[in-house]
Structure formats: structure tokens, C-alpha cells
Design goal:
409 residues, alpha/beta, Rossmann fold, 14-stranded mixed sheet, two-stranded antiparallel sheet, Nucleoside_phosphorylase_sf, Purine nucleoside permease-domain-containing protein
């Protein structure tokens, strides 16, 4: 295990308990967070240099962030705790954005859950301490994993993120006899229909060409594994070819994410959300990772992109499997979720960094040749409304005739 200096470790422990008091609004400090070298009171933003990151790593909770702090400096990619910037509106548990001394790579932690992710990301995206117009956003966290397409420790790069829990819900004990699930899309009368009432956050699609480049970089990683994870994976072997990925070792795959604040588990719920992803993406999405934050994070970035604060074509979604979303043969959903130990947390955190740092390294190394000018999308990018322009390849089509939404002035 790699160790942080005592002062940093103490501060991080306080932040994790929600006790760290941020410096004055807008403060930029050198060295460990909290050692403010600026006078009291909020500084004049116009007098501070704006940081222009090439990569912004987005974590959701402390372990996902710590793995970057602990390893980047030792691996020669810079100290993420060299610059610590307080941003008003971010989580009080994680009030700082951390950057390398040259400002090329930064990292922030949203705190878990959709509401925390949306509010923290919105605050960051419009923060006056940064210029994000050319920044690549690496949304990198652990997740539940669909054993059909990946495994514990597996790495997934997504094209779609689907807010599958944004539906009507019956308790399965009270649903009609002819229903296959208790989830029914808004505005419909039964399962497996496209919603007719839309909130705008149901489906997001990111840049497939960029996803494919990120996949190539991540595939260079020498992923980690452990014996405990191997033992739990072996439970899926009796299922045969349908769950062959579950019992294999970690690899990098291309498949999509589901967002739900409910930490669900079991074959029936997981298969219900598989159908939701398939229907809501017009058969082009494939659900393999489930987490709590991605649609909220992307919703904030869409809104910031409408006003030109960020470039939504520069968003990458990276998730690693820490636990299976449904049990292996012969195990109940209850035992799988609450009794048995899947032992996937450590390997998922480890591979999050190992795959993620290859993406960061690729962007930095190929900045001049590729990434400075941007990776041109080959697909529609944006939300289900068509807010950024273009015609969504799912849903009822653009609300503005294919034109970008005009910001209110």
C-alpha cells in the first residue's frame, strides 16, 4: 500500500467525515489542502489565473479518489494534491478540486448519489477558477456489473448512460399477473414500452469515436486480480456460455451504464433494466454496469455545454465492476447482496486507476496531434431532447428541429 504524508491523510480523513472547513471561497492553495497562503476573505476572481485542465477526473467517493492521489505521483504523472482549489457549491465532504502543479490534470469528488453528483458537477462546470472549454472529462468510478458482459474487476467504456429507474414502479407482489416487471415507463400502461412523458435525463449518448480511443488506451493496462475474486467468479461457471464473461478474468469492454439511486440486486430487476436500456436506446445500447451518478453528472455537463462552459464531445465514462448485479446459480438474491462476500472492491478500485491512467496518459501524450483540436464524433451526442443540436437516434426526436437550444439571455 502506498502512503500519503500524515498531514494529507489526516485532512482526507476529516473530509470523508464531512468535517473539513474549506478556505475562503475561490482559494487556490499550494501543497496540502487547507494550508491557505492567501489572505482571509474571498479573492477577486479576475486577479486569479484560470486553470485550463486537459483532463478532469470525476470521482464519486473517497476510495475512487484516493487511488489517484496515492499512485499518480509515484508513477511519474504529477502530484494531484499540488494545487487545491475550493469551489463554492461542491460537496462539503469534498470541497476541493485537486490539480497537478502544471494544472494539466485535475480531479474532483462529487459525493455519492444523483443529487450530490448533479449539484457538485454544476458548481464545478461554471466555476470561474477554470476554463473547461478544451477539457476531457473522465467520469471514473466502480459499479455493479452484469455477468453477461463483464466481471468483477472488469473495465467498461460506455456510449450510453440510461436513467432506468426513472419509471413508474409497482411492488412485484402487487403488479398485474401478466406483467414481467414492476417497472413501467412514464405515460404507458405496461412494461417494455417507450416512455411518452420525458424529463430529458432518460438517456445520454457520448462521443463514440472518443470512447473507442479511450478503449484502445485502457486496453494497454495490465489489470489486477486476486484469488478471492476468482473464487466468487467461479460460482457463475455452471451457467455455461450465457455467463461466460462472469467467470473469466478482468478485461476491457465496450458497453453501457444504468443510473439508479436504488442499490438493486437480483436476476429479475437486472433483466428488467436490461430491457429498459435496449428499448430506450432503440436496440443499440447494452447494459453492463450500474451506478448511482452518471446521468446526473452528464445532465450537469449538458447544461454547462449549452452555455459553452464545456465541450460535451469530450466526455468519457469509465466504470469497473466491484460486485455482480445478480447472483450466480444456486444463490438467492438476498444471500448475494447481503450475506456472501464478492470481494470485488479492491480489484475494482485498482483497475479503475490502471485503466484510467492509460487514458490520461494517452490524452496528454497525443494532445498536440489529436486531442487539442478534439475528436470528431461519428454519432449523435447529447440528451434525449437534442439540446446540443442534431437528431437523437433514440426517443421521439429533437425538440428543436435539430438545432441547438439557444441559451436564455
Amino acid at each position: 500500500m502506498r502512503f500519503l504524508p500524515c498531514a494529507l491523510a489526516s485532512l482526507l480523513a476529516l473530509c470523508q467525515r464531512g468535517l473539513a472547513a474549506p478556505p475562503s471561497e475561490g482559494n487556490i492553495t499550494n501543497g496540502p489542502a487547507g494550508d491557505s497562503s492567501l489572505p482571509n476573505g474571498p479573492p477577486n476572481p479576475s486577479l486569479l489565473p484560470r486553470i485550463t485542465p486537459k483532463v478532469m477526473i470525476v470521482s464519486m467517493f473517497a476510495p475512487e479518489a484516493d487511488v489517484w492521489y496515492e499512485n499518480m505521483r509515484l508513477d511519474g504523472f504529477g502530484d494531484l494534491l499540488a494545487l487545491n482549489i475550493s469551489v463554492p457549491g461542491t460537496s462539503p465532504k469534498y470541497p476541493y478540486v485537486h490539480c497537478t502543479l502544471d494544472g494539466q490534470v485535475c480531479q474532483m469528488t462529487t459525493c455519492e448519489g444523483e443529487i450530490n453528483a448533479a449539484t457538485s458537477m454544476m458548481a464545478l462546470a461554471i466555476a470561474n477558477q477554470f476554463d473547461f472549454r478544451k477539457t476531457y472529462w473522465l467520469v471514473a468510478g466502480i459499479a455493479g456489473v452484469n455477468p453477461k458482459y463483464s466481471t468483477i474487476g472488469g473495465v467498461a467504456l460506455a456510449r450510453y448512460s440510461v436513467q432506468a429507474a426513472l419509471q413508474y414502479e409497482f411492488d412485484a407482489r402487487e403488479m398485474p399477473d401478466n406483467f414481467s416487471t414492476g417497472y413501467v415507463a412514464f405515460g404507458t400502461m405496461g412494461p417494455d414500452h417507450y416512455p411518452t412523458i420525458l424529463y430529458g435525463t432518460e438517456v445520454f449518448e457520448v462521443n463514440q469515436a472518443l470512447r473507442d480511443r479511450a478503449f484502445d488506451y485502457a486496453s494497454k493496462a495490465n489489470l489486477t486480480d486476486n484469488e478471492d475474486s476468482k473464487r466468487y467468479r467461479a460460482r457463475y461457471k455452471p451457467a455455461g456460455n450465457s455467463l461466460a464473461m462472469a467467470s473469466s478474468g478482468p478485461s476491457v469492454v465496450k458497453c453501457d451504464t444504468v443510473t439508479s439511486d436504488v442499490y438493486y440486486s437480483g436476476k429479475l430487476l437486472s433483466e428488467s433494466f436490461e430491457r429498459t436500456v435496449d428499448i430506450w436506446t432503440n436496440g443499440t445500447g447494452r447494459y453492463c454496469m450500474t451506478a448511482q451518478e452518471d446521468n446526473a453528472t452528464l445532465a450537469a455537463l449538458i447544461k454547462a455545454a449549452i452555455f459553452g462552459f464545456v465541450d460535451f464531445a469530450r466526455v468519457i465514462i469509465l466504470r469497473t465492476g466491484s460486485n455482480f448485479d445478480r447472483p450466480p446459480p444456486g444463490v438467492t438474491a438476498y444471500e448475494h447482496l447481503l450475506v456472501l462476500k464478492q470481494n470485488g472492491f479492491a480489484v475494482a478500485i485498482g483497475n479503475l486507476y490502471l485503466a484510467g491512467i492509460e487514458i490520461v496518459k494517452g490524452i496528454l501524450n497525443d494532445w498536440t496531434a489529436v486531442f487539442d483540436k478534439g475528436v470528431k464524433p461519428c454519432n449523435y451526442i447529447g440528451d434525449i431532447f437534442g439540446s446540443l443540436g442534431g437528431e437523437p437516434d433514440y426517443g421521439p426526436g429533437s425538440l428543436t428541429g435539430g438545432q441547438p437550444v439557444k441559451p436564455a439571455v
